[in-house]
Amino acid sequence: DIVMTQSPDSLAMSLGERATINCKSSQSILLSSNNKNYLAWYQQKPGQPPKLLIDWASTRDSGVPDRFSGSGSGTDFTLTISSLQAEDVAVYYCQQYFHNLHTFGQGTKLEI
Amino acid sequence: QVQLQQSGPGLLKPSQTLSLICAISGDSVSSDSATWNWIRQSPSRGLEWLGKTYYRSKWNLEFAPSVRSRITIKPDTSNNQFSLQLNSVTPEDTAVYYCARQPYNSGGWHGYDYWGQGTLVSVSS
After folding, report:
1. Hey, are the CB atoms on B108 and A38 less than 8 Å from each other?
2. For residue B13, how many other CB atoms are within 10 A of its CB?
3. CA distance B49 to A104
4. pLDDT at residue B108 in the model
5. What is the rounded distance in angstroms from the CA atom of residue A36 to the CA atom of residue B6?
6. CA distances from A60 to A69, A70, B4 (A)
7. 3-state secondary structure B18-58
């Protein structure tokens, strides 16, 4: 199994600040045939299912504000929220879908 | 707009069978550009992918090793839905269960773009 490890487990920030969440995979999730990293970021608010934010490590899903950005390749990835808004309070998860057994990180709780 | 609507009981006793349905609107369970997945979430196990079904000239199934001996996923083309059955449940199977779509296009596979609303399943004697 590919193990996804996020850091930190929790983050307390102020409105307008920049937040950075890291995700490390236990093996490369870069598909060489199309040069895409099979890594997604999700946002989950209480009582809701996860919502897809970022696909292919750096492609924002439709309708996702541009303050959310993803970067990284291979085994190390980052989700950045450039200017925190109150509505960004949530738990954030990374997920790899490179291997058939899709695995998620443990989550990072973001508080304002 | 794709929607996934989950249904099924939320309270089970140990050894019973968990049965959930995910009804699809706005897409087809027979689509050749998507897989249809079941995921669960609990405080102890986090988000855990359980299995998927998809159609590529024939029906395919894949399961997580942790539940492979107890799980069944069935597509239902007549009702455009797919189901999850998990046999011999224990309190460790207590979780919120989700269905989700994973799309595929010329660029490759994507993350899960549409999710069901979630069903809390509690296993207790």
Report:
1. yes
2. 9
3. 8
4. 87
5. 32
6. 7, 8, 22
7. EEEEEEEECCCCCCCCEEEEEEEEECCCEEEEEEEEEECCC
8 A C-beta contact, residue B18 and residue B96: no
Q: How far is CA A94 from CA A34, A41, A64, A105, B50, in A?
A: 21, 4, 16, 5, 17
Q: Would you tell me how many other CB atoms lie within 10 Å of the CB of residue B120?
A: 11
B46·A36 Cβ contact <8 A: no
pLDDT at B100 over 90: yes
Structure tokens at A14: 């102020």
Q: Check if the beta carbon of residue A73 is closer than 8 Å to that of residue A37.
A: yes
First-to-last C-alpha distance (Å) of chain A = 34
Q: Is pLDDT of B86 > 90?
A: yes
Amino acid identity, position A30 = L
- Average pLDDT in the B109-123 region? 97
Assigned token pair, B67: 């539940």
Q: How many CB pairs under 8 A join A and B?
A: 58
Distance separating alpha carbons of residues B125 and B114, to the nearest angstrom: 34
Chain A residues with CB inside 8 Å of B54's CB? none
Residue corresponding to tokens 């999710």:
B115
